[in-house]
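## tool: complex_structure
## caller: assistant
## args:
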Amino acid sequence: MDIKSIKSQFPIFKNKINGKPLIYLDNANSSQKPERVIDRISKFYSKEFSNIGRSVHTLAVTATNRFEETRDLVKKYINAKAREEIIFTKNATEGMNLVASTYGEKFINKGDEILITELEHHANYVPWHFLRQKKGAVIKFAKCNDKGEVEIDEIKKLITNKTKIIGITHLSNVTGAILPVKKIVDLAKTKKIPVLVDGCQGAPHLKLDMQELDCDFYAMSCHKMYGPTGVGILYAKKEWIDQLPPYQGGGGMIEDVKKDNITFSGSPTKYEAGTLQTAEVVGFSESIRFIQDVGIKNIMQHEKEITEYGVQELKKNNSVKIIGDPKNRGSIISFTIKGIHPHDIATILDEDGVAIRAGHHCCQILHEKIGVTATARASLGVYNSKEDIDVLSNAIKKCNKIFNK
Amino acid sequence: MDLKELYQEIILDHGKNPRNKKKCKDFNKHAEGHNPLCGDKVHVFLKLNREKKVEDISFEGEGCAISIASASIMTETIKGKEFNIAKKILEDFLNMLKEGSKLKIKSLSEDQNTTMMSLSGVKQFPMRVKCATLAWHTFMHAAEEKKETANTEKVDG
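## result:
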């Protein structure tokens, strides 16, 4: 893979950060955008823009077509069975809230159990907490082991006849562990429990096949997939979209409105009330094409190589402690440095143009378990190279120097 | 931006060897502070006597070098001061971090002045200002016996 040519497609790297080349290692937070995505949005606004799905004029037809073509592209990319199973949301968080709210309203009652894991991002915990408060549901946490993984047995142990839904991350945004989602879905299926997968970290870095995985819901965050902000995708099996109540009410999601009654449209527009982030959705089509052009298998292979190199280099520094040691690691390396708070690490690294994230990464449950309030996290993307890791390692040595002089 | 101005010798020293990092004896007021963005927490203990003088002040907590150093410097600066003076020091400190203004208060020793000024470099790092102000806001919560936790997201600065 020609990283230089890939990197050159991302205009952000032409900028200097504090006078240094940008080493962007905050991809789990959000990824940078290739020029073709930026151009697509600009072209859409310059030449094709109109609101979609409402008017009959030429522009409305063009805009609607571009928007719906993206739905088809996504359907194909994640190998969903039907285009109706692709719902555009404002982000993955909204997708997960949508599931918790609508599924919860219909199927979760007092004493029912929701099974999630200790690795979950707040986006796959807080929406369930609302149900705990509103309906008296019980939330159970499958334990993560000292390698930062959740094993299938931990899930198995907690399933009871009251378990109504399982919510799991595909790839932990802190430990980098790739969870055995297929096995968990298969297990859940034998008990007829639906599974929601938080695919925020999985979707940008792993090959997706919804029909093979066979989960019930899969939430994606487009801005982490080299796409625009403001767009998320919720994959939901059609049988669920048909059964579940609407989420938000408004224009576009109705079938017929009378003073005494309202009926709702079918999937997917039932969950797409109001004017959506049209230009961003159209722009996202170019993100998918970018990933397809590079090839997800190539991306996976490349990121694996750089991540392994990163782990190996960071381990050479005795003051660095890597959080978790999963057998199956995505492109995420969280770490702490003895005697230096992660926020100080992030500030010092920033001076060298190295962008990482420091904090609890919206995973306070996990951080409490590890026994720290914060960690530093380097997360890689398609444009990162071994040289980036070298700059990172040197910048970490600078932290040691400042704090241990 | 200059890292050297942020991580000055005085700050690194207070960060590594914080003063008054304990629960002080006979405290009669206390409050907790929280920075929800990074998860840092601080607990300030205060002994305010009848004449409204800060007889003793201490803190416990976890955080970055900036927040620990700032808490440590705060306890050293405020200890022994009248509450009204302490309040003025706090105002001065916040103005220094937000507006970049010099300390106006006259009742600080030269040493105290230099130590406080060592935190002025934080202004250049807007994302870190809240690290430096957490303990100070918490001190006010303790003094004014506010029931809720001091929260850097709910105060101005």
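## assistant note: The longest strand of chain B covers residues 40-48. The helical segments of chain B are 3-6, 9-16, 65-78, 83-99, 110-117, 129-143. Handing back to user.
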